[in-house]
Amino acid sequence: MTDNRQEVLSSSGLLGNERIGKLLFRFAVPMMLSLVLSAVYNMVDQIFIGQGVGYLGNGATNVIFPLMQVALAFGFMFGDGAASHMNLCMGEGKMDEARHSMAAGISASLAVGLLLSVLLPLFITPLCRVFGATDAILPYALDYGLIICAFTVFGLFDVVTMSLIRADGSPGFAMLGLVAGCVTNLIGDPLAIFVLNMGVRGAAWATVLGQMVNAALNIWYLWGHTQSVHLDRAAFRGCFRFMGKISRLGFSSFIGQIGFVIVLFTQNNLLVHYGALSKYGAEIPMAALGVTMKFFAVLFCAVIGVAAGAQPIFSYNYGSRNYGRVMETLRLVLFIAVGVLGFATVWFQLAPESVTALFGSGNALYDEYSVKCLRIFLALIVLDAFELTGSIFFQAIGKPLIATVLILFRQIVIQLPFMVLFAWLFGVEGLLYSGPLDSFLVGTMAIFFLWRERKKMRQEPCRSQAILQD
Description:
mainly alpha
């Protein structure tokens, strides 16, 4: 064994040697809290808007939500891709490549973010129509969307840099930046909506201000306070030659978000069309399902947070061929994910009104459809634990194709066509049954891929065994 290999193994530190439970707690808890807080303050936006403006305001934010997801698609691609490449390079002892990967992720986030900040506001009205804005909702959507879209660069930059800071070994600071943004938004929402009487525009400005605070803290960390990967001007020279590798590793995240946007586009328009033919009307189904998904996003982010927090552990130990640690981490992540979503499944079936009451409406039909969204659309979300964990796991170990297959199968092959079919056959209520069917089929496929990968790793000699033999 060469001296370099010995140095790499001995410098593995926490990622290569620390007890998995303790290590996962250190990395996953800050990431989970970060994403949950992000989802919570998006949900709080809905609560404040629902109480201060009404369900038309909530409908407006649900129209703009897909546009925000387009920006996040690029953010996840560059952030997740750069973070995975960084940790794989660190596991192999290639620290210079890790530096360039970090610089490439930052550069890409700024370039694409600025471009979207210009383009999205220019086409905001037709985009709102495309994503289901009715005549009643459109004025609110424009008030909210013009502000959010004009400052897209901050949201995209925050997503990318949070992944890079976590990959650098500082998940706690990544959480701190997001917490600061959340607190700023939570203070700004009631102040702008109720005190200044700014309506949905106030909610938008509070969100943007929170993103700016988050970005400022992340910049402070990256420029002079990194822990493992030293970032300087030299790291940015020629960094774009790594964009291909970063984009490939993060492509499944990009496809997942774009597929989600396509699903939202179809879903919103189906809800408006078939809702208008039902007793609920055009606006209620879209607003109700949108709010339901914002609440589910909190649980979704808890699971994603645990899996994404484990990403450096997966990547580093897979790069070091410590497959036993990879499998141990995977088992623990799945145990937590199934527990969280299993609890949620029982909760939504037994007490859905405890969720719907948070958002207020004063409309009996709105409340009725909201309860159906929770009980039907989210009936089998416990099986989503395997797909959500599997997508991040395969991306982290350098196998983005499998992650992409899982995501595309879910959104394009199953969810989209069955959503259209069930709405056509059974109306606006029938559309909800596409949710549990999707969870069942994709969860089964994810279990198969994870089992197959586990079998392959068990047949591979781990790096530590090879070193002992040397």
